[in-house]
């Protein structure tokens, strides 16, 4: 356990430093964006003394470092500030939108894994076979098509044609689990297909590479069954590059969620970010961007931790 805890603690300290650096860069970039929040709230015709009073109330007349430290202190205490547009707490806005975005991304990740792992393993069993040809075509098409375009095809081809799933909107979890799940099904498929296409290709290549290793041939020579070799020797080692790619795809998944949520008119984090950008609600933008950055950094931290569990060679070297 000590061999695992030490690298995890080291990664955790690096994560904290990275988060501080990212928060500073985000705040710096938002400061460089043209536009005065006080002027946006009051309008172009506001009097100069009214603008000055509101700027003082919002803390915009204080030095840059002081405002950054005040924002950072608020983050640590859970106070993210108030939205200029919605006139409510940014933390409350984020929590409300997470009720849509978290299930959506969770479904997308689950679907991409359920599609890619069986398809990639089956394709690697017989290279250049029928399943392998199908997996190759699926990977090429899935990588080439943007997820928002897949979402439009799903709306036209399934939602509007069959009526099995809604074409957009979200009824809310209070109105029933099944109607809400149906509203998220097509968007999650649109997000999952490009991720599954990439993971299928990575899984196939990883399984073929591990299958040709000496320890796999030794296991077969000792009389181990093909299923035992696959589940106990090939897959545990092939999962390392798959987990790596899955962690790297999280950032792509978040970027895709912004577009897909707008295509399906879902009140999630992506829609909140788009609306805040259109309305120049800077306090919402910087907190949402920081939240996305925290998610990506934390997922990379989990991937590093999984390395030490999946690959015993890392523990032996340490």
Descriptive overview:
Residues 98-307 form the ABC transmembrane type-1 domain. The chain crosses the membrane at residues 12-30, 102-123, 144-165, 177-199, 238-260, 288-310. Pfam families: BPD_transp_1 (PF00528), BPD_transp_1_N (PF19300). There is one protein chain. The chain is mainly α and 318 residues long. It has two domains: 14-77, no CATH class; 91-317, MetI-like (MetI-like fold). It has 13 helices and no strands. α1 (2-32) runs antiparallel to α12 (282-310). The mean pLDDT is 80.
In short:
With about 325 residues, this protein is mostly helical. The chain is built from 13 helices and no strands. InterPro entries: BPD_transp_1_N (IPR045621), MetI-like (IPR000515), MetI-like_sf (IPR035906).
Extended strand count = 0
Supply the number of structural domains.
Answer: 2
Q: Main sheet? A: none
CATH superfamily of the largest domain: MetI-like
Calculate Rg over CA atoms: 24 Å
Structural class: mainly alpha
- Indicate the CATH class of the largest domain: Mainly Alpha
Instruction: Tell me what portion of residues adopts beta-strand conformation.
Output: under 5%
Mean pLDDT: 80
User: What sort of overall outline do the alpha carbons produce when their principal axes are compared?
Assistant: globular
Task: State the end-to-end CA separation.
Answer: 12 Å
Going by CATH, the architecture of the largest domain would be: Orthogonal Bundle
Briefly note the CATH topology name of the largest domain: MetI-like fold
Number of alpha- plus pi-helical segments: 13
Instruction: Bin the helical content.
Output: over 70%
Order of helices and strands: HHHHHHHHHHHHH
Q: Give the uncertain stretches in residue-range form.
A: none
């Amino acid at each position: 356990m000590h061999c695992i805890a030490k690298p995890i603690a080291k990664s955790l300290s690096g994560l904290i430093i990275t988060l501080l650096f990212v928060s500073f860069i985000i705040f710096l970039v938002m400061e460089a964006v043209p536009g005065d929040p006080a002027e946006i709230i009051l309008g172009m015709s506001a009097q100069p003394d009214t603008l000055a009073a509101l700027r003082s109330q919002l803390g915009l007349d204080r030095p840059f470092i002081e405002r950054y430290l005040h924002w950072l202190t608020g983050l640590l205490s859970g106070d993210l500030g108030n939205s200029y547009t919605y006139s409510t707490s940014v933390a409350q806005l984020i929590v409300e939108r997470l009720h849509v975005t978290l299930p959506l991304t969770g479904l997308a990740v689950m679907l991409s894994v359920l599609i890619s792992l069986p398809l990639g393993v089956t394709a690697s069993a017989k290279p250049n076979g029928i399943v392998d040809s199908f997996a190759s075509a699926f990977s090429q098409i899935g990588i080439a098509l943007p997820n928002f375009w897949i979402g439009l095809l799903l709306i036209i081809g399934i939602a509007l044609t069959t009526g099995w799933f809604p074409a957009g909107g979200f009824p809310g979890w209070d109105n029933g689990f099944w109607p809400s799940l149906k509203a998220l099904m097509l968007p999650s498929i649109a997000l999952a297909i490009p991720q599954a296409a990439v993971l299928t290709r990575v899984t196939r290549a990883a399984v073929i590479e591990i299958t040709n290793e000496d320890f796999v041939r030794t296991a077969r020579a000792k009389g181990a069954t093909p299923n035992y070799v696959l589940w106990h020797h090939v897959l545990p080692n092939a999962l390392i590059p798959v987990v790596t790619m899955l962690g790297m795809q999280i950032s792509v998944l978040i970027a895709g969620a912004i577009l897909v949520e707008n295509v399906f008119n879902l009140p999630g984090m992506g829609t909140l970010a788009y609306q805040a950008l259109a309305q120049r609600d800077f306090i919402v933008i910087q907190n949402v961007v920081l939240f996305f950055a925290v998610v990506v950094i934390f997922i990379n931290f989990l991937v590093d931790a999984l390395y030490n569990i999946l690959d015993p060679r890392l523990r032996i070297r340490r």
